[in-house]
């Protein structure tokens, strides 16, 4: 399995922490040629990408991108593919939970959660398909949650965006 990622190009959203940072690190450990780490939190992204760049020189690119913004995701994917000359993987990982009673949710909070957890994934999928289909290969990986199947109390908004 380790060789599967060797010399490949990957985009990872939500890459400044958690699963995204772990995915980025593992891709580099397994020999990925280019890992495009994206996150909306620029200071954290720069810090974590900087650490990985020291360990894997020339193989990490940090891009400030908000997965809630279609143009950010499309720009990220296009730039990664153009500068790397292909796109082998996209990990649509950016997302967040929301633990709040339904009656306390505002429409704006729910819309923001939908933009990130659902639309952010779709922006990545559609952008990657425009590149991967013509090149004849590629993998799209979307981070899911068991919360979409078995919602916990106060998780109605989150569960609906992960279902």
What does it look like?
This protein has 163 residues and is α/β, with parallel strands linked by helices. The protein is 47% helix and 15% strand. It has helices spanning 18-29, 42-55, 70-84, 107-135, 156-162; strands at 9-13, 34-39, 60-64, 89-92, 139-142. Helix 4 packs parallel to helix 5 (156-162). The chain is globular.
Which key features would you list for this structure?
about 15% strand; alpha/beta; about 45% helix; globular; single chain; five-stranded parallel sheet; about 160 residues; 5 strands
What's the alpha carbon Rg, rounded to whole Å? Answer: 16 Å
> What's the total number of strands?
5
Residue runs with pLDDT of under 50 for 5 or more positions: none
- Could you give the order of the helices and strands? EHEHEHEHEH
Number of helices: 5
Give the strand order of the largest sheet, numbering strands 1, 2, ... along the chain: 3-2-1-4-5
- Measured by DSSP, the beta-strand proportion falls in 5-15%
Q: What average pLDDT do the residues reach? A: 96
Largest sheet: 5 strands, parallel
Helix content: 40-55%
SS class: alpha/beta
* Outline: globular
> What is the CA–CA distance across the termini?
29 Å
List the helices and strands and how they pair.
Elements: E1 9-13, H1 18-29, E2 34-39, H2 42-55, E3 60-64, H3 70-84, E4 89-92, H4 107-135, E5 139-142, H5 156-162
Parallel strand pairs: 1-2, 1-4, 2-3, 4-5
Helix pairs in contact: 3-4, 4-5
């Amino acid at each position: 399995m380790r060789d599967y990622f060797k010399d490949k190009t990957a985009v990872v959203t939500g890459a400044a922490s958690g699963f995204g940072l772990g995915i980025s690190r593992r891709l580099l450990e397994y020999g990925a040629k280019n890992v495009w780490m994206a996150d909306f939190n620029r200071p954290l992204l720069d810090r974590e990408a900087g650490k990985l760049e020291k360990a894997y020189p020339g193989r990490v690119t940090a891009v400030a991108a908000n997965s809630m913004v279609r143009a950010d995701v499309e720009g990220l994917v296009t730039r990664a593919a153009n500068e790397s000359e292909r796109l082998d993987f996209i990990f649509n990982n950016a997302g967040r939970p929301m633990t709040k009673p339904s009656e306390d949710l505002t429409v704006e909070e729910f819309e923001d959660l939908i933009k990130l957890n659902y639309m952010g994934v779709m922006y990545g999928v559609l952008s990657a398909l425009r590149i991967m289909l013509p090149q004849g290969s590629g993998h799209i990986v979307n981070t899911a949650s068991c919360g979409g199947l078995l919602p916990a109390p106060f998780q109605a908004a989150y569960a609906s965006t992960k279902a």
